[in-house]
Amino acid sequence: MYPNGLILALCLSVCLEFTSGAHFTLMHHAKCLQGHELTMLVGFSLKECVTECALRASCQSVSYRRNIALCVLHDEIFTSEAEVSTSGETCVGYVFVSVRLGPQLMTSHPGPCSSSPCPPGTRCMPFQDTFTCEFKECPSSTTTFVQGGGILGNLNSIGNFRLVKCDPKFTLFGVARQECLPTGNWSGKATCSMDCGPPPVVPDGFLGIGFIETFTTEILKMTVYNSSQLAMIAVFLEGSYIEYACNNGYQMRENNFTECVNGLWIGDPTCEVPVSPVSPTFAENMGNCNALVKSYAYSTGGCVDTCITFADTFQGIPGKKLNFLDQETIHTSNFNTCKLACLERTAFKCSSFEISDSLCNLAIENANQGGYFRDDSGYTYYQRDCLK
C-alpha cells in the first residue's frame, strides 16, 4: 500500500506526462459530466481537448474518454470536490477536467487567446500575435427541447445535421432535417404541435385580444387585435389563446375566451342580451348604460360613445375588469379611496377603475375606448360618466 501523498504524486506525474506539459488544477479520473454539452470532438488528445475548451469563453470543463479519443466540451462545471463525489457520474475510462471557473482559466494557455477575448458561441483562432473569432459549432442538439417530439443526432459542429422527429399525434411544422451553418445557427426551424383549425365564431361578438401560436417561415407568437388579422393566419397551434368582446347591446355569458388544447378549442364564449340591468348596489346612478358599452351623459340623458367632459360619478358592473389597461395600481379595497384617487389624477385622465378586496386599478381608457372585459368575480368595474 502506498501513502495517499505518494499516490497523488504518481497520479499528477502521469497526468502531466499524459498531457504533454498541460497543467490542470482540477482533474478527476473515472468521472464525467452528463449533459450541458457544447459539442463533441473525436480524434483529439486530452491536451487538445482542454485547449479547445480554453479557446471558447462558454466552455467550463471537459469530459475525455481516452480509448476512443472522445472530447466532450461542457458549459457547466462541478463547483467543489464534494460535488464531484456526490453528483459526478462514475464513467470508466473517462477523465474530467475543470478548465475554467467563471472567466478564469484553470490551466495555462499562452498566446493572444489566453484572456478569452471572443464572445460565447465562438472559438478564438490565434494567428501570430492576433486572433479572429469564428463559429465552430451550433447550440448543442442534446440540450435543445422540442415539445411534442425530440431531436435525433448529437453532433453540432459546422456542417453536421440533426433531425427533428415528432411524437405520435403531433404534426411537424417546419424543416425536419437541419444543418449547422457557418453562422453558428441551425438551418430552418421546426416545432411539433397540434393544429386546432380556425377558432370559433361568436355570434354578436368579435375578437378582442389574443396570443396566436402559429407557424410561417419561423415559429412565431403574434398578438392579434381584430378579425382581419386573424383571417390571415392559416395554422393555429397548441397554446393559442383568444378573448372575445360582445357587440353593443349584448353581454358575455360566463368565460370570454377560447384556448387551443390537444388539437381542440376549449371554452364556449357566448354573447347574449342582458336578462336584467345591474343591481343599483353597484352603480352610483341609473343612466341605463349599465352594460357599459357606452358612457352615460348628463347633457343628453342618454348613452354616448365618446366623452368630452367627464363627470365625477361612475356606473359599476360586478365580476368584470379591463384587460391589460391598468395605468396605476393602488393597494386599497375602499371604494371611496379608489374613486377619489381616480378623480384626483392629473398626470392622466382617469376614465374608469376596478376594485377588488385588496387592489384598486386606475385606467386611462374605458370599455368603449378599446378596452375589453375580462370576467373576474373578484373585481367590480366602474366606468366614469360624462357631463357632455
Any chance you could write out the topology, listing elements then pairs?
Blueprint: H1 4-18, E1 26-32, E2 37-42, H2 46-54, E3 61-65, E4 70-74, H3 81-87, E5 89-98, E6 100-101, E7 104-105, E8 123-127, E9 130-134, E10 149-152, E11 161-166, E12 171-174, E13 177-179, E14 190-193, E15 205-215, E16 219-224, H4 227-231, E17 241-246, E18 251-253, E19 257-261, E20 264-266, E21 270-272, E22 295-297, E23 302-304, E24 310-322, E25 326-330, H5 335-344, E26 352-355, E27 360-363, E28 373-386
Antiparallel strand pairs: 1-5, 2-4, 3-4, 3-5, 6-7, 8-9, 10-11, 11-13, 12-14, 15-16, 15-17, 17-19, 18-21, 19-20, 22-23, 24-28, 25-27, 26-27, 26-28
Count helical runs. Answer: 5
Low-confidence segments, ≥5 residues, pLDDT <50?
1-23, 217-226, 276-283
CATH architecture of the largest domain: 3-Layer(bba) Sandwich
Question: How big a fraction of the residues is strand?
Answer: 35-45%
Main sheet characteristics: 5 strands, antiparallel
Cα radius of gyration in angstroms: 32 Å
Q: How does this structure look, described?
A:
The chain is mainly beta and 388 residues long. The protein folds into 4 domains: 4-134, Hepatocyte Growth Factor; 141-188, Complement Module, domain 1; 205-272, Ribbon (Complement Module, domain 1); 280-386, Hepatocyte Growth Factor (3-Layer(bba) Sandwich). Helix content is 12%, strand content 39%. It has helices at 4-18, 46-54, 81-87, 227-231, 335-344, and strands spanning 26-32, 37-42, 61-65, 70-74, 89-98, 100-101, 104-105, 123-127, 130-134, 149-152, 161-166, 171-174, 177-179, 190-193, 205-215, 219-224, 241-246, 251-253, 257-261, 264-266, 270-272, 295-297, 302-304, 310-322, 326-330, 352-355, 360-363, 373-386. The strands form 9 sheets. It has a 5-stranded antiparallel beta sheet, with helices on one face. Strands 16-15-17-19-20 form a 5-stranded antiparallel beta sheet. A hairpin with a 4-residue loop joins strand 26 and strand 27. It is elongated and about 90 Å long. The protein starts with a helix and ends with a strand. Residues 1-21 form the signal peptide.
